[in-house]
Amino acid sequence: MNKLHPGLKGIYIILFTLFVLQIACSPRPNIQGKGEDFMQGVWNEDSVAFSNKLSNYTQHHFKFTCDSVYIDMVTHSKINFYEDSCYNNGIWKEYAKGVYVVKGDTLFVGATFTHANYKQKISGCYRIGRYDKNFLIKRKSADTLLLESLSDQREIKLTLKEKITCVQKEL
How many beta carbons lie within 10 A of that of residue 142, not counting itself? Predict the structure, then answer.
């Protein structure tokens, strides 16, 4: 049997160690996550229960694509919470964009309020900053999703309008 020169043996050990470290410490691909298959799509809240009896309510439109979420909210209010130029006869739209994750029976949404084009909103009427909401997933089927806001216990009954297949994009 051939014996390695002691100096070569040390070089081989160092090269093998560097190779293992290179594999172990390589960054993961810089692409978005897959999200949840059952949520992929465009979901609308067609009506809000007891809306005629509420002083204010919000209808939601969600678009889940991979691990991203786009939220359109139409608020109807009989009470003016904003300056008159923003009140808009008690009906206004807000938008948010972010990411979501489902853990067990809970949907966690971390988003930022945006303009209609989903570019970050830093001033103007209505809310700015973070939109962080958690929802209990009370029921899910192929075309219906029933969420309950954990902050105000209001239910959001969503109907699937368009199914989307996740195509992960580079970040």
Answer: 8
Is 118 in contact with 95 (CB distance < 8 Å)?
yes
For residue 26, pLDDT beyond 60: no
- Per DSSP, 120 falls in state B
Helix or strand or coil: residue 144? strand
Query: For the segment 130-154, what is each residue's pLDDT rounded down to a tens digit?
Result: 999 999 999 999 999 999 999 999 9
Distance between CA atoms of 52 and 14, rounded to whole angstroms?
74
Residue ranges covered by each domain of the chain:
37-163
Residue 151 identity (one-letter amino acid): S
3-class DSSP assignment, residue 15: helix
Residue 39, φ and ψ in degrees, nearest 5: -95, -15
- The tokens for 110 are 């971390």
- How is domain 37-163 classified at the CATH fold level? Lipocalin (2.40.128)
d(CA 144, CA 27): 38
Residue-level length of the chain:
171
Name 27's Cβ contacts closer than 8 Å, sequence gap at least 6: none
pTM of the model: 0.81
pLDDT digits (tens, 9 = 90+) for 100-125: 999 999 999 999 999 999 999 999 99
In three-state secondary structure terms, 145 is strand
Q: N- to C-terminal Cα distance for the chain?
A: 53
